[in-house]
Design brief:
By secondary structure, this protein is of the alpha+beta class. 60% of the residues lie in helices and 24% in strands.
Length: 182
C-alpha cells in the first residue's frame, strides 16, 4: 500500500529556515552595530588622547617660546657686549698711537739746530711751528719730516727771521698732510 503523508513538512522546514535566517541577519546586524560602537569608542578615546597631546604640546611650545625669547634677548645682549668690547679693544690698541707718533716725531728734531714751539693736529692735517738756526736747518728738518712714514706731504706755510735773545733765528710753520690710518 502506498502511504501518503499529508503533513506539510516542507513548509515547516521553510518557516524554520526563514526564522533561522532572520535570527542570523538580526544577530549579524546587532554584532555589526556593536562593532561600530566599539570602533566609535576607540576613535573617540584616540581623539581625546590626541587633543590632550596637542594641548600639552601647545603648553610646551609656549614655555619654549618664552625661553627662545629669553635666548634671543641674551644673544642681542651678548652681541652688544661683544661690540662694546671690540670698541674698547680698538681704543686700547690705539691709545698709545698718538703718543708713539709724537715721540717718533720728536726724535726727528735735531736738538742743536731746531726747536719746536707748537704741534697741532686737526683731522688729517698736522701743523708744526718752530724756530731753527737758519734756513738750511729748517729745510733739512722739512725733508726729514716729509720722509716720516705717517706724513704724506709737507708744505711750508711761512718762514721768517726773528730775533730771540739777541740771536737771529729762522721761524717756520709747516703744514703736513697725514696718510690715512694714522
Amino acid at each position: 500500500m502506498i502511504k501518503i503523508n499529508l503533513i506539510p513538512y516542507h513548509e515547516k522546514e521553510k518557516k524554520e529556515n526563514l526564522i533561522r535566517q532572520i535570527v542570523i541577519a538580526a544577530g549579524s546586524f546587532i554584532l555589526f552595530i556593536l562593532c561600530l560602537i566599539a570602533v566609535q569608542i576607540y576613535l573617540s578615546s584616540q581623539v581625546k588622547n590626541l587633543e590632550t597631546n596637542l594641548a600639552d604640546a601647545k603648553q610646551t611650545l609656549k614655555v619654549l617660546d618664552a625661553k627662545v625669547g629669553d635666548l634671543d634677548k641674551f644673544k642681542r645682549q651678548k652681541a652688544e657686549l661683544e661690540l662694546k668690547l671690540g670698541v674698547i679693544g680698538i681704543l686700547e690698541e690705539n691709545r698709545l698711537v698718538p703718543v708713539k707718533f709724537f715721540d717718533e716725531l720728536a726724535m726727528l728734531v735735531p736738538s742743536k739746530s731746531i726747536w719746536l714751539t707748537k704741534i697741532a693736529q686737526e683731522g688729517g692735517s698736522l701743523t708744526i711751528e718752530g724756530v731753527g738756526r737758519d734756513n738750511i736747518a729748517a729745510a733739512d728738518f722739512m725733508k726729514t719730516v716729509e720722509n716720516f712714514p705717517p706724513i704724506q706731504s709737507v708744505d711750508l706755510v711761512s718762514s721768517k727771521k726773528v730775533e730771540i735773545a739777541e740771536t737771529t733765528l729762522q721761524q717756520f710753520i709747516f703744514s703736513c698732510k697725514m696718510k690715512k690710518g694714522f
